[in-house]
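My main concern about presentation is that the manuscript never shows what a single data entry looks like. Each protein is reduced to its one-letter sequence and a matching series of backbone shape codes. For the editor and my fellow referees, an illustration may be useful. For illustration, here is how one protein appears when written out as sequence plus structure tokens:
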Amino acid sequence: MADWLHELPVIWMTVVIFAGTYAMAAAIYGIVVGLAAGERGRAFKAVSPGMLPPLGIMFGLFVAFVAAQVWGDSDRAMAAVTREASALRAVVLLAASFPGEQERELRALVRRHIDEAVTHEWPAMGRHQVTLTMAPPTLVEALRLALALKPASDGQVIAQRELVASLEAALEARRQRIIISQSGVNWVKWTGLLVQAACTLIAIAMVHCENRRATAIALWIFATGVGICLVLIAAHTRPFTGDISVRPDALRQVIPLEPSH
């Protein structure tokens, strides 16, 4: 679906999708009812109502197939952000093992990384504009600093090892959220879903073409169900876009304060 639709508030996305779904149902109603005369009318009436359950099941399978991907991407995005926040929190805590200038520098680098992620990366991820071609300079600098530390005790040796491991975990979690931000329901899946919905609506119209009121009611009921499915999928298909998206709140919670002097 178009980028502008995913960026709409959920209420307006719902209005647009339902308007499109009802327009499709109205067009199918007009075409089928208009053609249901003479020989074509008899052919339409001969369509077996037994076709409707298989078509409905096929549409349900399409929805389940697409929704499984959407929910999975959303869960993985949240897990990646949580892992990144946890790793950065560990960096902040471990930095206290190296008091003085080294601690202040590590905390400042974590703070700058979070600020960059929240203010620049998050909006860009929503537009599919973030790639893995460039590593985050602040985390790379923090990793370089951690590797250059000279432990003065066994405790600092352990702290340095854990510090490096936490920074590597934060880098990996960031890579995962960027990869997930590139995901989405491709046009082939959307086309298959919409074509299956249209086929089911056409079959419903043909089966009930003798009674225009029954045709309109049946089409309206199924179109409403289709609209609900499309709204649910469209609102979640991009984990970092729209009202229902993964927020950087977990990262904001671990922004380190300036150490007291």
Notes: The first helix runs from residue 3 to 6. The chain has ten helices and no strands. The CA atoms of residues 164 and 261 lie 26 Å apart.
